[in-house]
Amino acid sequence: xxxxxxxxxRIKGFQVLVKxxxxxxxxxxxxxxxxxxxxxxxxxKQWLTQDFDTIMAGIKERRQKKxxx
Length: 69
Known about the structure:
The chain is mainly alpha-helical. The protein is built from four helices and no strands.
């Protein structure tokens, strides 16, 4: 089995979405994704220097702030 190019995978993926969701819902599904922001590589290096408890404390703090809004 020969590996497909990324473009071939995208085309096939969109065809499957359209077949299963219909054209308008397939477009809505694709539009729901964002590329995000930031520098993953830089941030990852910062994360790797933190221990588990520090990471968990940060997650809990963010969740608390979010629930207060």
